[in-house]
Amino acid sequence: MIQRSRLAARRTRTAWLFLLPSLLVLLVAAAYPLWRTFQLSFYQVSILQFPLQPEWVGFDNYRFLLADPYWRVSLKNTAVFTVVSVALETVLGLGIALAVNARFAGRGLMRTAMLVPWAIPTVVSAQMWRWMYNDVYGVVNDLLLRAHLIAQPLAWLSDPHLALPGVIAVDVWKTTPFMALLLLAGLQSIPDELYEASTVDGASGWQQFWRITLPLLKPALLVALIFRTLDALRVFDVIYVMTGTNPTTMSMSVYARQQLVDFGALGYGSAVSMGIFLIIALFAAAYLVSLRVELD
Amino acid sequence: MKALKYVAIAALSVAFGSATSAQGVTLRISCGAVGQELELCTEGAQAWADKTGNKVEVVSTPNSTTDRLALYQQQLAAGSSDIDVYQIDVIWPGILSDFFIDLNDYVSSDLVAKFFPRIVAANTVDGRLVALPWFTDAGLLYYRTDLLKKYGYAKPPTTWDELEQMAAKIQAGERKAGNGSFWGFVFQGKAYEGLTCDALEWVFSHKGGTIVDQDGNITINNPNAVKAIQQAAGWVGKIAPPGVTSYQEEEARGVWQAGNAAFMRNWPYAYSLGNSADSPIKGKFDVTVLPKGGAEGQHAATLGGWQLAVSRFSKHPKEAVDLIVYLTGYEEQKRRAIKGSFLPTRPALYKDADVLAANPFMGKLYDVFVNAVPRPSAQTKQKYNQVSSAFWTAVHNVLVGQTDAATSLRMLEQQLKRIKGKGW
């Protein structure tokens, strides 16, 4: 008995020893910046001062944040972006994963080719799409005009009704392959015998999908959803490159950057960043809880 | 964060500090790259380098003034000695003054007296002269002389209503004649600093004030301003392309110089480019003052222009000052005026026969340039960028049809009050 607990204690010590490097990295790379951001969010301080003259303002920044119409706009945009893009990416990704999971000639080539959009850096693909969306020389308008689907060229990125859908489409184009890859891995862990047995029992393909594929894919699907949701909530590059700080598409991160960099408002910008942190932490916690329930 | 900053500074000083040699120093100057700017800046800097035996490297910057300011702020806030001389917008001295040296310590008051006193005043913050004026700017109306004649107009429009009518008539006629992509009027409608300039002209020409008045009061929510913005919103998609709400200077010039617009609002730099040898509209256009807002309105041109400042982190401030004195000197400004139609900042150059021969409009519109309307940067100081951003966003929302001008300006007033807080 005593022997055993001593062994356990030693194991625990070893475990901590192994964890130490990553904990240290986390402390330096995540905890310290977060702590500094938290501190700064109680000050009014401009990056334009030399030297800096921080002024303690208590909860003023947070009070301002709660009443800030542009913060609300960016919250709304981020919510729409996250829900629509993650939903589309999941459905399309699942479709593609099912397709490339089937056996057919050229499957290897197909699996590689589908990753191309994911492999291009976001800044590059966003700029590429920005040109394709251009109202005067863009290829999107050209194709639609030739197909007689529109009568007049559309200003894709400056029309308030089209800008956010336009950006979401680019994100879906880019990130669906990632979703498909994660789901493909999940599909491959489902044993073939289950399908064979159910075929013998006379189950249709539709029944197999709902009764076998989907339930067994659930853990992989959940992990993929967590990844994508957390990623989408802090979306920055695709929006910033395509439409800048335009309020019709501005996300929370774009707004934080505008405050911190364009306006040099370190205090208020930090309060915005803390707002983003809280929202993402909330989602992460909710997912972790649901994941534990699901996996157990 | 602080530690990182020092590492970055150390790395930069290793990288660039070692460039200093016995034969002179190496300076880095940041220049704009709109139109021929970069080419002319490089030539000027090279001429100084050849004369003095020093070296100059030219760093090009984003075309959007808004992006350029963000870049400068990051460089300067990090204490970087990477760039010695900064080309800064006329609205930035108040924002960036902490980071530039006081030129009064280096240049004589006789030299300063050779520039327009108003522009020198704009570059003086709390008694410190933070930059020397390089070229000035004022918004102008470009119009096609050949088309006006063709459609029976003897002179350019004097009010915005006239411009609307003429633009609509010419646009309809040219489209019927076969040019399907012809538009009446192009301007800067993207949500950035350029829209603040254009919209200030609309508002001021309707006697709607300057957003924030001399004493720092927020005046933008008034009936004249509402009328001005509402009228401009009516142009989009009718006499101006729908995509104009994403145009900066160069996009507008692209449409104009291809011969696809009857009118354009732009800065003087487009004059010499439009008259260059390979330009389809060479000799077919002229410039004049922008229209009045109705019969009781007034002509308005937003004051623009760029200055040269020396970073306080520069390792060679003496040489850097020598460079900016050379670049803002009589001869170099004359060369830039003739080759690039950049407006000089020295009154004497407006009487120079060579300058006037190359740019007849400089003599004709002299009064427009000296009476140009400044944006409210002096009043709003370090908060100017926030004020301007709120203003151009509010105007852009009206241009793209998301809201009407009255609602937008009422909301803008509320927002500006919050930005102002206890004071600017």
TrEMBL record, chain A:
One GO-annotated biological process of the protein: transmembrane transport
Statement: the UniProt record of this protein carries the keyword Cytoplasm: no
Pfam families, A to Z: BPD_transp_1 (PF00528)
Membrane-crossing segments per the record: 79-100, 263-289
InterPro entries according to UniProt: MetI-like, MetI-like_sf
Keywords: Cell membrane, Membrane, Transmembrane, Transmembrane helix, Transport
Cell location: Cell membrane
PROSITE patterns for this protein: ABC_TM1 (PS50928)
Cellular component aspect of the GO annotation: plasma membrane
PANTHER family per the UniProt record, alphabetical: BLR7065 PROTEIN (PTHR43005), INTEGRAL MEMBRANE SUGAR TRANSPORT PROTEIN (PTHR43005:SF2)
Name of the protein this chain belongs to: Sugar ABC transporter permease
The organism of origin for this protein: Oceanithermus profundus
